[in-house]
Amino acid sequence: MIVAENLARTYDMGKVIVHALRGISLTIQKGEFVGIMGASGSGKSTLLHLLGLLDKPTGGQIMLGGIDVKTLSDRKRTRFRLKRLGYVFQDYALVPELTVEENVYLTSMIRGTSKEEYQAQTLAILNRIGLADRLAHKHNELSGGQQQRVAIARAMVNKPEILFADEPCANLDSESSRNVLDLFRQINREMAQTIVMVSHEDWHMEYFDRVIILRDGLIISDGKPPEEFYQKGCNYS
Amino acid sequence: MLTDLRVSFFLALRSIIRGSRGSLYLTILIIAMVFTNMIFMPSIILGFIKVAEDQIITYQTGNILISPHEDEPFIEDAFSLQEKINRIPGVLRASVHYGTGVTLRHKGYSIGSTVVAIKPDDERLVTDVYRKIKDGYYLADGENDEIIIGIQTSGHKDESLDMGPTLGYLQAGDPVTVEYTNGVSKVYHVKGIIETGSYYADQGSYITWDELESVYGKKMDIATDIIIKTYPDAFEPDVKTQIYRFGVRENVQTWQDILEEAMGRAVQNFAMLNSITIVVSLIIAVVVLFIVIMIKTLNSRRQIGVLKALGVEKNIIIHNYVFQVLILTTIGIIVGTVLVESSVAILTVYPFRFPDGDVTPVVATSDLINNTIMLYIASFIAGYIPAWRVASEDILTAMRS
After folding, report:
1. Three-state SS for A17?
2. Phi, psi angle pair for A197, to nearest 5°
3. What angle do CA B340, B284, B347 make, to 5 degrees?
4. Is the ipTM value over 0.90, yes or no?
5. From A113, A202, B105, B309, which residue has the greatest number of CB atoms within 10 Å?
6. Rounded CA separation B185/A177 (Å)
7. B316-371 per-position pLDDT tens digit
8. Which of A109, A138, A154, A198 to mutate to test the interface with B (most CBs of B within 10 A)?
9. A221: CATH
């Protein structure tokens, strides 16, 4: 479970101070598939980075799985990310010198999992996403959609408590995007995986259990899509 | 910790194997050339010193030289001292020398030189001059009116090979006039021409002890020096100590003492040149590796940010690049060693020609080990600093680069 209270993030740009988040409070339950949406500059990526421990808030508090992450040292935050969180990025971010299989099991290696175990886990997850026949391929031998599915496999191989996805379909065509979103929903439904995903595509809302819409660093809508969204008549884009 | 190092090594190996081939080969080549440079110069210097050692032992002084005490012109009771020395454990043979300044004349050529009187049978056991007769024969005990002359005194057929004034291509069988400082002038039959490759030895002339006594008209029991050959397993400083225990008050020097005296300053200068070469080579290695890793890390900033986001610790990322540098250095050192050994093999067949002989590089194991360690330390620093700088960036800054 994620609990954020009065979360704020301010960037000091010298003469200008930018308030990216102005005091956000939210709770995300285990097993929810949450979409964070909003126009460019609304603070959605900043919120994801704070919840995913990639950045530190200038105000407020975040509890992940009952732990106040503010108390964690940098080293413990790193271990927390490794052991309990998963990430999927917009540009896939696969390590270019590694094969599909190696990219997927890299974090398992770091966790100290035995070779037999992480190889079996990797094969299982790649089977699940339909890329088991691409084990020895490098990233430049895959399509964008396939690379993103490998990135999802990498994020999922250690069975994270929360999966964060930062605009994972931004570089994909609509068919590949739909495949990726189907995969997210499948993971969410079959594995009760908590997923927090940032998106700016309206049609992605149909996949989410819940949509949080931000504007100017504040939540302007939080509820089940699409009815509530349209009832409020919000147009963020 | 071990797991982290294993992951770092895994990433480093994959990066090297699957990264840019051109960059890999160029980096290895540069490290190999740097290593070759670090080893080659000392090996030439060592080769030069080795030649000097060999020449001193083989053609000049043997393993130990006894010369007169500084207050005296000669070693008295030379032959009884020789007998005593021959009985010392570790001594193979001592040979008594009497050197005197002379003027040599042949067909209008005239040069000042030194004639050394020897007992050829003793001398054969101490120096290898007898093996280096280019023309004619070596002396035999009891011979009179015969002389053997070094080629730098007799002169070459090709004058360009002469390093100083000569007798104009004197050959075995030719007559040569020797004028002694006591006023005796005598015509000798040249029995042989010596060519050792040692400039010092090739300048000398030798007559027998019997001939010396005939020139001075008396029994000669004094010497200007006594040279000693020890057994191969004997330790010269121990033999020197034994000689002093016999009550010898003459000056006793091992070949190392002589080399230090003769070449000490030169060796110091060589050592300084060597140090400069090594420092410059190390700076080149550090700068090249620093640039290579800096470019690699700067090009991988986003990837480094992503790895950190995924939970990969900073140390794993830094060690990854350090391992890459160490692997490149290892391959570079192996290639460099092959280059050095190949150069040594070629220069053994086609050595550098110096006045004191042919110099071939001598690669000391200690130089190989020391330079390898220095290169590894330099590589570690060159890999660590740029990797640390980029890996220390915060995640989002790195990811947005």
Report:
1. strand
2. -130, 135
3. 20
4. no
5. B309
6. 113
7. 999 999 999 999 999 999 999 999 999 989 998 999 887 777 888 888 888 889 98
8. A109
9. 3.40.50.300
Q: Are strands A162-166 and A194-199 parallel, antiparallel or unpaired?
A: parallel
pTM: 0.76
Residues of B in contact with A93 (CB under 8 A): 302-303, 306
* A63, A64, A68, A72 alpha-carbon torsion, rounded to 10°: -150
Range of the domain at A106: 2-232
Give the rounded distance of the alpha carbon of B63 from its chain centre.
Answer: 17
- Quick check: is A120 in a domain? yes
- Provide the number of structural domains found in chain A: 1
Contacting B with CB below 8 Å, chain A residues are: 49, 52, 54-55, 75, 78-83, 85, 87, 89, 93, 95-98, 102, 106-107, 109-110, 112, 138, 154
Q: For chain A of 237 residues, list the mean pLDDT of each consecutive stretch of 10.
A: 92 87 92 92 92 93 90 91 91 88 92 90 88 88 89 88 90 85 89 91 87 92 69 50
